[in-house]
Amino acid sequence: MSFSSQVKAELCRSSLSRRCCAQAEAYGVLLYCNQFTPRQVRIVTESAEFAQRLPALFQKAFRLAFDRMPEEGAGKRTFQITAPDKLCALFSAFGQNPAESLAHHINFAVLEEEHCRTAFFRGAFLAGGSVTDPAKRYHLELATAHLSVSGELRALLLEAGFSPKETLRKGNSLTYFKQSEAIEDFLTAIGAPLAAMEIMNAKAEKDLRGSVNRRVNCDAHNLDKAVDAAQEQIEAIYTLEQRGMLAELPDKLKEAVDLRMAHPEMTLSQLCTLCDPPVSKSALNHRLRKLLGLAKR
């Protein structure tokens, strides 16, 4: 099951208690479904939970049944209303006269209450929405064939405190979010808090994995630098030995030579603790750099 399917399954667990909210949700479904014209309503979905919710939703909202129901076990489930009296009832419920208007618009008067607006957003997502698996990337969109509706939905979302973006794709108008926080807030608002929590968990896991990778890369880089430095110091010591200069070195430098040759794999910090008495990292680094300088000369 895709993440979008999980979200829609969670949304369909919301109760249909108020008729006004049922009408608002059905309004969102109609404006974001496959076809809503004076000739027919056609809703196609792959979500079994949404398909199970639709008959109850339209019965609660309009006291009507679909003229065509999907076949049992179908992958894509199709619902249709073609009866003229039913179509007339749907248009009338939202103050529209199909003979007078060529384009759909959102009737804001139907969505004055906050709970009705939330139900409208839920219906729009159930019919025309999708959300990407948060383990891959963050993207939620609502697609409709009605350009005016898309712009008006954006206005409603802005009024509700969201900041969506808009674009066009293959003849459809898209309202979308790409920020994980915005997607979390939207899903929580329309009734999918568990899906929102899953996005939060995925984001936390990504951040943790990124932090670990950065730490590992940093440690590996530091180890490479330490190995290169130790190799350079050992080569300097061999150079001084070939020139017969080791015997002339001060005691502190001789100690640094002995420790580095005895422990070529150790870091500077580890060598400091073996000095007698122990010295600071900067002090031992100064001695080793002095050896490098002598070898270069």
Question: Topology of this protein?
Answer:
Layout: H1 3-11, H2 19-32, E1 35-36, E2 41-45, H3 48-62, E3 77-81, H4 84-93, H5 114-128, E4 129-131, E5 140-144, H6 147-159, E6 165-169, E7 172-177, H7 180-190, H8 193-242, H9 251-262, H10 268-274, H11 281-296
Antiparallel strand pairs: 1-2, 2-3, 4-5, 5-7, 6-7
Structure characterization notes:
The chain is an alpha+beta fold. The chain is 58% helix and 10% strand. It folds into 2 domains: 3-191, Homing endonucleases (Endonuclease I-creI, Roll), CATH 3.10.28; 223-296, no CATH class. The chain is built from 11 helices and 7 strands. Strands 4-5-7-6 form a 4-stranded antiparallel beta sheet. A hairpin with a 4-residue loop joins β1 and β2. α8 crosses α11. It is rod-shaped and about 110 Å long. The relative contact order is 0.09. The model has no long low-confidence stretch (mean pLDDT 89).
Summarize the structure.
With about 300 residues, this protein is of the alpha+beta class. Helix content is about 60%, strand content about 10%.
| SSE string | HHEEHEHHEEHEEHHHHH
CATH superfamily of the largest domain: Homing endonucleases
CATH architecture of the largest domain: Roll
Write down the CATH class of the largest domain: Alpha Beta
Number of domains: 2
Percent helix range: 55-70%
- As residue ranges, the low-confidence spans are none
Distance between the termini: 71 Å
Assembly category: single chain
How many strands?
7
Q: Which structural category do the helix and sheet elements fall into?
A: alpha+beta
Under CATH, the topology of the largest domain can be stated as: Endonuclease I-creI
